[in-house]
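COURSE: Structural Biology Practicum
ASSIGNMENT: Worksheet 4, Part C
STUDENT ID: 0417
INSTRUCTIONS: Below are two proteins. For each, the amino acid sequence is given first, followed by its structure token string. Answer the questions at the end about the second protein only.

PROTEIN I
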Amino acid sequence: MTAVEYSNQVQNIAQSLWPAAFKLTRDSDDAKDLVQETMLKALTNRTKFKAGTNLKAWLYTIMRNTFINNYNKITKRSSHIDSTEYLQYLNTDENYITQNKGTSTFVINDINEAIAHLSEEHRTPFMLYYVGYKYLEIAEKLKIPIGTVKNRIHIARKELKEMLKVYQQSA
């Protein structure tokens, strides 16, 4: 493919890139800039394109990668926090509460106790599912229908949620 043919094809596809660019950026001007930068990279790196492959997909990939790279640059640049204005909070207890391992130990103990209170017919499929078995594997292992397995796991989750409602976050 000659340089002129390549340029013509890239320019023909350029208009179809704008909706995807807008979906990524959610801003009309940023979308135009992203398409323009994509076109510049595509024309600059013409030799890297393999003739016979999907040019439109190649351009979408360039555009997506450009967007991701720009996004990462922006977030890294803006992640620097000037801590001087937060020094007033350094010694105040009421603003920051940290959790320790003791708290998580209580939570784990409560979860294990709640699981132990499940009936055997609900606990067994639930624990098999928890350790990684698929519904079909559990059904075969317990020699029960797959619908029964799903129902018992659902009931176990519902009962656990009720028993552990003290840990639910309030909105």
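PROTEIN II
(use this one for the questions)
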Amino acid sequence: MNAHAQTSADPGRAHSLRLAVLLATYMQSANLPLPNAVLRLIQGTLSMTDDQAGWIFTAYLAASAITLPIAQWLAGRLGLKLVYQAALAVFVLGLLLATVATTPLQFIAARIIQGLASGVLAPLSMAIAMETLAPEKRMKFGATWTAIVLLGIVSGPSIGGWIAEHFDWRPIFYISLPLSAYIFLVVALLLAEKKPEEAPSFDFFGFGSFTLALIGLQMLLDRGERLDWFDSPEIRIEALACGLGLYLLMVHVLTSKTHFLNKRLFRDRNFVLSTLIFFAVGFVLLSTMALTSPMLDEILGYPPDTTGALTIPRGIGLVGAFVLMGWVPERFDRRLFVAAGVALVIFANGLMLDYSPLMDWSPVAVAGAIQGIGIGLLMPALTKVAFSTLDPALRAEGTGLFNLSRVYGSTLGVAIVQIFFFNNTQAMHLALAANVTPYRAAAHGGTASMSLPALEGLNHMITHQAAFIAVIGQFKILLVAMLVVSPLVVFLRKPIPAN
């Protein structure tokens, strides 16, 4: 008897399994941005530099991007239940290591472990849930699963900020421990082990080439600023690894019959264009959060709970619009909603360019809510457009690539805005400080000499102004990213209505 037959005979078991895997989905997505509102506390405790703080997000994302493609193969070879429980155990190990970390490298290693497990948990949670549902209900549940992922991403910072404000930053990882124990117990008791009759095949050469390129590029972006880019032998080696991985992957895709990325996917115009737009959505969403929370926390001095709470309007807008899209009749052309979503995200990012050190919290809440509504409209409509014209036989592979584009868009987005943020902060600091001279001070009634505390205060003020200007510059990058992909909407074909 297969898993679907078992759970169909016992609706209570099916419901409990779906609840458990939805909790796992929420947990792994919420842990990605969980430290976002408490970066200042983590940096202070671990003596972490500003460039290392960006690794908190990119390490988790890049690690999950590596294991995401191989999750289904592992489940097919070793058993779905065994692999899922092992991933939960590894995720808990990462949580515990994060709470006891005393150095930046230890903390980043813990985040990598969490990310590796997350990349397995996400697709297998979906697979387990689908096994408990009748085929006609699976499409609708897919929207629910995506909504849970988004809810985790947008609510994580508010949870972390509240806990850190009232306790400390380390307990933010404790809340996932009882959830993990509950999920593990439910899966152990209710999920029957499942292995396919024939062991699945997997394109290890393509996967290895892709992984080599991904790791090389990520290390280049994360380490380049610290090591002065291509003046460093390490950065040159990482660039070479990235180029070699991309070259081997492209040759493999073009010359092999079976490979990591099915060439037939790239013959569907809607799928290709939608994947590019989805990449930009990932580039913008998490990068915006990675910029906004430090701006509020470190530059404007908001407490962690307030910083986290200001992510709530984005979450309400995003999840609310996403849910409402499920009620839109099929006869409405989803391309209109894609265009509306892109326009709203661009408008919201334009509002972020007007942020000021003198503002209160309301511009952040308004811009976040509008961006959330835009993405909430865009994601389900884009998914419909992408898969309505795709050959059903390619949908499983297409779903993996489609979701991977968002994950890696987020990884690159966070890394790129971090690079430009530090470069622009330094440049603006030099530009502002160049105008502070003893002669200018004397001309304005000051003195040519200043005490050490006064100089420290002046430098602190200049640094904050430079950092704020740099943040606005990064919001401009995110705006440009959406503007670049916006013309692609025009070339989308009308989706084929569901039967």
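ANSWER KEY EXCERPT:
Q1: The mean pLDDT is 83.
Q2: DSSP finds 20 helices and no strands in the chain.
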